[in-house]
Model the fold of this input.
Amino acid sequence: MTDNNKKGKNDREHLLRWITSIVLAPVLILVVGFASKVWLLLLVLLATGIGSWEFSRITYDEKKSKFPVDIFILLALTIPMLAYYYGLRGLLGGMLINIFACFSEAITFYGKREGVLEKLAFRIFHLIYIPYCLAHIVLLGRIWIFFVLAVIFAGDCGAYYVGKKFGRRKLCPDVSPGKTVEGAVGGFCSSLVMAIIFGIALSTDKNLLQLVIMALILNIIGQLGDLAESLIKRSHGLKDSSNILPGHGGLLDRLDSLLFAFPALYYML
Done:
């Protein structure tokens, strides 16, 4: 592929990414900001289900489980559901139920067979990485959900455009070849600016300095989450988690920076 053709393809994908974002943004704003909180739960359940399916698509094959993967996807949905109805106790209780299920599968179907601990570790890692992290959304107030979204998305945009314009030094080439140190700094500054705008425009129980500190921590955690998802994909030879979002790839490719950020903000608050 020539440089011109490659540039044209990248420009089309970039445009498609913006179109997809513009279409989905009003739905996200409506559900998070104005709809009944039940709709927020449904959105979290949808994200958990799709994210779990993508994760299983990356990490599992038919030889790795005697159970169909969708059983564990359905079980994973109990974690945000219990968090919604019973708060933090429900979240931890849902995790415990799912961990019992993972060990039950391992004991019943694998016993002392080779690789059983690896299979079990994948199961439990999935629970922590997707349903546990996403379940914290239903524990946060609406304004704080918007805060996470605003800070992380601003950081993502800043990192992308600054990195594209000024990026020279690779941040972590073995995990994510496209990310640069300059882009990371640009994302860091963008999150800082967004936190200041957020603090001026909206009233919260935190002062501006506290919002800035939280935003800076969230940006670091968000960039770590981005690299973590890249590590999972690269270790299995994949560029995208799926292709369900035009221009973005999979849902996990959009949630990667957010997955660690929601629980991090919950515990900071």
